[in-house]
Amino acid sequence: MHEDVERCVRAVRSKDARFDGWFYTAVVTTGIYCRPSCPVVPPKPRNMRFFPSAAAAQQAGFRACKRCRPDASPGSPEWNHRADVVARAMRLIADGVVDRDGVPGLAARLGYSTRQIERQLRAELGAGPLALARAQRAQTARLLIETSALPMSDIAFAAGFASIRAFNETVREIFALTPTQLRDRVARGHPAAGSGTLSLRLPFRAPLCPDNLFGHLAATAVPGVEEWRDGAYRRTLRLPHGHAVVALRPRPDHVACSLALTDLRDLTIAISRCRRMLDLDADPVAVDGLLRADPVLAPLVDKSPGRRVPRTTDPEEFAVRAVFGQQVSTAAARTHAARLVAAHGEQITDPFAPAGGFPAGGLTHLFPSPAALAELDPAALAFPQARRTTITTLVAALAAGEIDLGAGSDWGEARARLSALPGIGPWTVETIAMRALGDPDAFTPTDLGIRGAARELDLPHTPAALTGRAAAWRPWRAYAVQYLWATLDHAINRLPAA
């Protein structure tokens, strides 16, 4: 979009927040770059330059605006609905792969050479993977500087910098302030959180309908791993350097996020996975605009615009839970998963005590990893033999790395590998594609709830006929599923009581 100068200028002049994250505006006379919705007086068009990423603006020598904080805008929705190598690379960079494994590790995950990855990212985003990861490290550093009392040396390494010098130089270059000055700007009257506990705001593009999003997560929560408590969805997270507990509360203009991390190096990854679970980088205007074109869906969209697709922080966990949920009720699926967690999950201590702003919670375990589940005795599973075979085969494939459901996975290949497993049919594959892979066009026409909703709305309700009608909803069929589900009297459609 950044190449459409006239459209970008109109967005800047109207201060349209819908375009935040789509492109960045640099001003040659001031040397700063902003989000489109920056509240300052718009510059003259001849002084504007447009970039597809914050990293590209930084590489061109511009620093972040101190007023609109473009580094804190919602991420580009481009990386949510595309399945090409650039989109997969951006999802992996957001998940911290470059910081952990370098550019060769990123390239290996994608099956390309480092030169090919560099070339494709530069061509589309104006910056290579190292610059993109550096911009992300800078944002992580800013969060830690402003929201914690950690020493700057700890922040530098927690944000992923190799040295204190690189940390200081990057912060000064991008924000035109030293780390100490950056902390002083926000510290007055705002005491910082203690080590390991952070309070953040997760921005999103309006509108956002929290009902189905948080309702679904709360209604399907696995005891010990997830819960709804005191108006917040809380869950445990398994992360590369340790684990975390997160509490997420919907607010009118953001999602309040409280994170307790065992290792602060996981901050960026934890935020990325929470944003992905809540689908916060979606473009609801584009989604709802297309779905409104269907006269049957239009009233549903107008009633509750901005529905998101509830996803997951752990794709492999969700795949196992999807098999547990085959042909049983939500309550039964939760019961089976809770037994699995109690028997094979890793025990943790819920860090949020009353003094920390939360009542003592009921989170006790991390969901067991595929490696841990590979050791389970199938006879201990209270399922028919065929379902046991499905679960053990899936777990073995995940543990061996034969099926990749991660942020950079190839959606088509993942579907094919899942379909080849015994006992995994179209409903399970598409459910995993929708909530674990994050494919916005995943569709479940065989789902009994969807067929019932279609019948009530006088839509075709056989799978083949409904699939044909849904062709007009592409590439947003996963969102159409949320609107269809909203017609049913089900707990997943309601925001739980505080």
Average residue pLDDT: 91
Care to count the β-strands?
11
Termini distance? 41 Å
* Percent of residues in helices: 40-55%
**Continuous helix count:** 23
Q: Give the overall shape.
A: globular
Strand order, main sheet: write it out.
5-9-8-7-6
> For the CA atoms, what is the radius of gyration?
23 Å
Largest sheet: 5 strands, antiparallel
Poorly predicted tracts of residues = 354-359
Beta percentage is 5-15%
Structural class: alpha+beta
Gist of the model:
This protein is α+β, with helices and mostly antiparallel strands and 498 residues long.
Write the layout of secondary structure elements.
Layout: H1 5-13, E1 24-27, E2 32-34, E3 48-51, H2 54-59, E4 63-64, H3 78-81, H4 85-94, H5 97-110, H6 114-125, H7 129-147, H8 152-158, H9 164-175, H10 179-187, E5 197-202, H11 210-219, E6 226-229, E7 232-239, E8 242-250, E9 255-261, H12 267-278, H13 284-291, H14 298-303, H15 315-324, H16 330-344, E10 346-347, E11 365-366, H17 370-373, H18 385-399, H19 411-419, H20 426-437, H21 448-456, H22 463-470, H23 477-485
Helix pairs in contact: 4-5, 4-7, 7-9, 8-9, 15-18, 15-20, 19-20
